[in-house]
Amino acid sequence: MGFAWLKSYEKDVPHSLKPYPKRTLLDVVSDVVHQRPNHTALIFKGRRWSYLDLEKLSDAFANALVVQGVKRGDRVALLLPNSPQSMITQFGVWKAGGIAVPINPLYTEHELERLLNECGAESAVVLTRFYNKIKSLQSRTGIKRVIGTNIKEYLPPSIRFLFTL
Questions:
Q1: Which of the listed CATH numbers 2.60.40.10, 3.20.20.80, 3.40.50.980, 1.10.760.10 matches domain 24-164?
Q2: What pTM was computed for the model?
Q3: Which region, left, alpha or beta, applies to residue 9 given φ > 0 means left and ψ of -120 to 50 means alpha?
Q4: What is the pLDDT averaged over residues 134-160?
């Protein structure tokens, strides 16, 4: 390999992880669901979700994508911050056979338009805060469906109440 950074590796650090495992992250999460379903998978603002919760939520999202017409190999843009939704949607996209394309929702409309066109996404998942931004450029992209989610859906009750105020 002609990668310059390999020269800086210590002697015992391999240049490759081959042979690559035949298992995906979804396989690993599924194993944890069966072995320790109540073990914490996500923590967000003090609220916790178990691996079983993550499995059920991502399954439901995958099913919703399929019902909406997402097929194997379709790209789904995920314009989400670090949140439970980012994990749920990424796993859901993979389960539906799609390709998750995480994109920073803070990009300008021009940047988003270019990225959405380059990646070929036909679906986009966005926080409601960015919904209008995506809808305003939808006609200039290949986006057929925009799915909105609200950050407060996954906040603990006390913070959700304050967020609403």
A1: 3.40.50.980
A2: 0.84
A3: beta
A4: 86
